[in-house]
Write a structure and sequence with these properties.
The structure is a homodimer. By secondary structure, chain A is of the alpha+beta class. Chain A has helices at residues 2-12, 17-26, 82-87, 108-117, 119-145, 148-158, 168-175, 179-190; strands at residues 28-32, 37-39, 47-61, 67-74, 77-79, 94-107. In chain A, strands 1, 2, 3, 4, 5 and 6 form a six-stranded antiparallel beta sheet that branches. In chain A, strand 3 (47-61) and strand 4 (67-74) form a beta hairpin. In chain A, helix 4 packs across helix 5 (119-145) and helix 7 crosses helix 8 (179-190). The first copy, chain A, is globular.
């Protein structure tokens, strides 16, 4: 699992062999079966988590019991609840494995230690936070401005590999459109 | 204008008199009339901007010519296009004064200089970015999970002072619901 992370982080930032050793010494590896949880609502998120294999999904349950998908995290991406992790507050979200998954995790304390020891990590991390912010702003714009068709088209363009790995009702949930609407759109497009 | 900023930043972070002098020496003050632009689509955003008085609005125009409101920035808040500012890329957004406004602005270069000289500024700035990220995630959740009524109720609770200062169609745009739907909701609530 760590090998995938090493390859990933070396491509993202200037990282030395010593840095890799520090990452490795503090990393926790974890395997999840399908439907196993990394985080459940009410728990405090304790880890920064890298998905080295598999596919994780973040969702929140509304008062009427409906699941709403906030994030898909395939291999070579990060997943966490930043608010819960930073503030030590119970999470409102669930993070669950959609496929058998392999994770590399660091506690907040260890990651702060890595920030001190690995100068380029802070830059990389800041870029990542900014990127999340841009993507969130783009998703807000799409949510308030686009038709269901446009939302679906943008999703396919932005996440071409995801659509075949996820049940349609989860894509509908992610986009904030009904399952019936999305089925209709796909039907029309297939024709 | 700077006086409001000084009061604001002293309440937000541990800031010394020397820090304040650095802020003041690099600040640019600007007054905008109603409907004057701070940023227009296609321009590169060059400033971090604090709204010391007035009210700014960020919006984007979609292909069909419709305005979509991304952000309201009343006094004592920041407004910028983070993506354009960080990456020196043309902005997709417009930032315009909804009321006569007074702004305190710093170039990116000067703000980076302040980051070097004012240790607590980096912490404050990072908290601000994280807060933006949480609020964006919350707004995404609301956008994909809530009815128009729930969106409106959440807006009133989160921004109690804003509703009276903004035309209803801009609130509708911010929430991603039609003006007619929002009028109907308000009508029902008044009854």
């Amino acid at each position: 699992m760590f090998a995938e992370f090493e390859k990933f982080i070396r491509a993202q930032a200037e990282i030395t062999d010593e840095d890799i050793k520090l990452f490795r010494d503090t990393a926790i590896e974890k395997t999840l079966r399908r439907k196993e949880f990394l985080l459940q609502e009410g728990e405090v998120c304790r880890y920064k988590t890298f998905v080295s294999k598999g596919f994780m999904r973040t969702y929140r349950i509304s008062n009427d019991g409906t699941e709403h998908v906030l994030q898909f995290s395939p291999e070579n991406s990060w997943t966490t609840d930043p608010e819960s992790l930073e503030n030590n507050t119970p999470s409102s979200n669930n993070i669950v494995a959609l496929e058998p998954s392999e994770l590399v995790m660091w506690t907040k304390k260890d990651f702060n230690y890595l920030f001190e020891k690995i100068p380029n990590l802070k830059d990389y991390s800041q870029k990542l936070v900014y990127r999340n912010l841009y993507l969130s702003r783009q998703r807000i714009y799409t949510a308030i401005s686009s038709t269901a068709e446009e939302k679906y088209d943008e999703f396919i363009q932005m996440y071409p590999g995801i659509i075949s790995r996820v049940p349609l009702h989860m894509v509908a949930s992610f986009l904030g459109v009904s399952r019936e609407t999305l089925s209709r759109i796909r039907h029309v497009q297939v024709k």
